[in-house]
Design brief:
Layout: H1 3-20, E1 35-36, E2 46-48, H2 50-58, H3 62-73, E3 79-85, E4 89-94, H4 96-109, E5 123-127, H5 139-157, E6 161-168, H6 173-189, H7 207-217, H8 226-252, E7 258-261, H9 270-280, E8 284-288, E9 304-308, E10 319-322, H10 331-343, E11 348-354, H11 361-371, E12 378-383, E13 386-390, E14 393-394, H12 407-414, H13 416-424, E15 432-435, H14 436-440, H15 447-467, H16 474-478, H17 488-510, H18 514-536, H19 548-572
Parallel strand pairs: 5-6, 5-11, 6-7, 11-12, 13-15
Antiparallel strand pairs: 1-2, 2-4, 3-4, 8-9, 9-10, 13-14
The structure holds one RNA strand of 77 nucleotides.
Length: about 575
RNA sequence: GGUCUGUUAGCUCAGCUGGAUAGAGUACUUGCCUCCGAAGCAAGGGGUCACAGGUUCGAAUCCUGUACAGACCGCCA
């Protein structure tokens, strides 16, 4: 149930009636007609722009259309009054009963209140994290993981059938580098002096792996050439790294539905098939790329390569799928991977990339567009950098030196809930400052506590009510006399609850889970405000000891707020709490 | 040189399909615990929405250009 779409349906119905009666010309599109909460509550409870957006196409004055709309709309029994304001807005006042009954709706639907029909069971694949299996997840991956997981949760809530997927880059040369680095640690475990040169991973996290390898194979790999051990160590190390990454994700509360291995594309003809499918569309050719402007020409040697004509699908330059030595580029298995996603029949694809992969957006979209003949949309969300601060000083991290701030470091220090919420109180495409001191020492100012506190207060009231002998079980609240919720301050909260389904649709349409976080903050703020008004106006206190019926109605409202907070936090992957500790 | 992001209050940021007098937090000033948990609430000051054009009934929002910041730009992934 969505009150705003209900009233919008009423407005559209009225417009259609007007068309039938000749008050409006045939063939008008009502797609731009909105019904939304007005920015200023003094303007009423709902506002529609119908008269204004239709004035021009209808060739009539806004106020004339508005006048006619008013006379029809005001006969609906849900509507108290309709006013024409400003240049032609219609401000609607809704009968209190409609608002009050929303509380009942929330309580009976529970978490399902706000779930939406917009997804309509469409299948969507959300690919996120997809970090190389060469080390632990760092703080940048953390943001991608949090964002992707919240987005998946949001789409799930909005009615999509969501697959959460991790693309494991276990096929490229970086896993050879990993294997060589582990080999060095293995030699080290045997007491040898080793040097980590450029092109190896010097991080400490590989030390236990070298030790474990020694325990496993003894001295079998000593004094042996790479061809003897590389493949086996690669296998062994990749698996170990993925185990570590899964553990990291679990700390954050992220669990994937699917891990797709890049390696599985090799040797099966999958890459060849994907490239052939592009070739069949005339999009593969042999050619020489031009020197990118701004690059030094000394470093540049023209080479003939196998190229994908991505410029036919909106890219700026064509992209190589094969290196001049005949091996695949990184892009080729990516094309095959996305061909696989297309073939799996998803209605919608979403990739979450770090900002450093921004250069791949156009070519991936081009590839999916070509592979699916433009039928399957691919949305790519970039998460910008996380800038870490401690004591006001920026934290520098260097993956090469192996001293980077890991997901584990962050979650150990501040906890999964705070990490997630803080990272979601920012748009994905803007950089994020993450200050350890702020999220820890000044935790009172942390929005996650603010929202959880509202939820905890809601449960606190219920405990108090139960102690006072008032029945507050969910069935009783569900039949409470909600007409007692007539105070403006209470209606403010109900109107906020009414916005929830609409917010979900907006957030899901734009793939922007941060909107959920901001909404929850506002809803929590409304509840805190109402709570404190009880200090000055005893009639607004939730607990009216001598009046169980009124208490039940008020507590039903509080419970409805808790339901929505809980649902919202659930989308974001943050735990609602019933008590603050 | 090119591509992609971003630029809104002193600071950190929201701002929906273009809509009414641009909103929060923080900081500052001042109130509120005999009262459901003060991890809270209320009030006040604080703005050339980077800049310049354009589109229209209407622009922080769309378009063009400029400035500044960040990420990326064949034979790494």
């Amino acid at each position: 149930m969505n009150l705003f779409s209900d009233i919008r349906a009423l407005v559209i119905g009225t417009l259609e009636m007007m068309t039938k009666e000749g008050d409006l010309p045939d063939g008008l599109s009502f797609g731009n007609v909105t019904v939304e909460p007005p920015r200023d509550p003094l303007h009423g409870e709902m506002a529609t722009n119908a008269a204004m957006v239709l004035a021009k196409p209808a060739g009539q004055k806004p106020r004339d259309i508005a006048q006619k709309l008013v006379s029809i709309l005001s006969t609906d029994d849900r509507i108290i009054s309709v006013d024409i304001a400003g240049p032609g807005f219609l401000n609607l006042c809704i009968v209190p009963h409609v608002w009050q009954s929303l509380v009942k709706e929330v309580l009976s639907s529970g978490r399902a209140y706000g779930t939406s029909a917009m997804g309509a069971g469409q299948t969507v694949n959300v690919e996120y994290v997809s970090a190389n299996p060469t080390g632990p997840l760092h703080v940048g991956h953390t943001r991608g993981a949090v964002f992707g997981d919240a987005l998946a949760g949001l789409l799930d809530y909005a009615g999509y059938d969501v697959t959460r997927e991790y693309y494991v880059n276990d096929g490229g040369s970086q896993v050879d580098v990993l294997a060589r680095s582990v080999y060095l640690r293995y030699l080290e475990a045997h007491g040898q002096e080793v040097a980590f040169e450029d092109g190896t991973y010097p991080g400490d996290y590989l030390i236990p792996l070298g030790q474990a390898l020694k325990n496993k194979v003894g001295d079998a790999y000593l004094d042996q050439g790479e061809q003897f051990w590389l493949a086996e160590i690669r296998e062994y190390a990749t698996e170990a790294m993925m185990g570590m990454i899964r553990d990291d994700l679990a700390m954050l509360g992220v669990s994937m539905d699917s891990f797709f291995s890049e390696k599985s594309l090799y040797g099966t003809g999958a890459i060849e098939a994907a490239i052939d499918s592009l070739r069949a569309k005339g999009l593969i050719y042999e050619g020489v790329l031009e020197l990118p402007k701004g690059k030094k020409s000394e470093d540049w040697e023209p080479r003939e390569q196998t190229l994908f004509k991505s410029t036919d699908h909106g890219d700026d330059v064509d992209r190589p799928v094969m290196k001049s030595d005949g091996s695949w580029t990184y892009f080729a298995p990516d094309v095959a991977y996305h061909a696989d996603k297309v073939n799996r029949g998803y209605d919608l694809l979403i990739n979450v990339f770090g900002a450093d992969h921004g250069g791949y957006v156009k070519r991936m979209k081009a590839a999916v567009s070509a592979l699916s003949r433009g039928k399957i949309p691919l949305d790519i969300k970039l998460t910008q950098l996380v800038r870490l601060f401690k004591d006001g000083e920026p934290f520098k991290m260097s993956k090469r030196a192996g001293n980077f701030v890991t997901l584990r470091d962050v979650v150990d220090q501040v906890g999964a809930d705070v990490t997630r919420f803080v990272m979601l109180t920012r748009k994905n495409d803007a950089p994020l400052d993450f200050d350890f001191n702020k999220v820890l020492e000044q935790s009172r100012e942390n929005p996650v506590y603010y929202v959880q506190y509202a939820h905890a207060r809601g449960y606190s009231v219920q405990r108090r009510a139960a102690e006072a002998g008032i029945n507050v079980d969910i069935a009783t609240l569900g039949v409470a006399d909600l007409s007692r919720l007539s105070h403006e301050a209470e209606l403010v909260v109900i109107r906020r609850l009414a916005e929830w389904p609409r917010l979900i649709e907006i957030a899901a349409r734009t793939n922007e889970p941060h909107r959920v976080a901001f909404y929850l903050y506002e809803l929590a703020s409304d509840l805190h405000a109402l709570w404190n008004k009880g200090n000055e106006e005893p009639a607004l206190r939730f607990l009216q000891e001598d009046d169980p019926d009124t208490s039940q109605a008020k507590i039903a409202l509080v419970q409805a707020v808790c339901v929505v907070i809980s649902a919202g936090l659930g989308i974001l992957g943050v735990k609602p709490v019933e008590e603050m500790r």
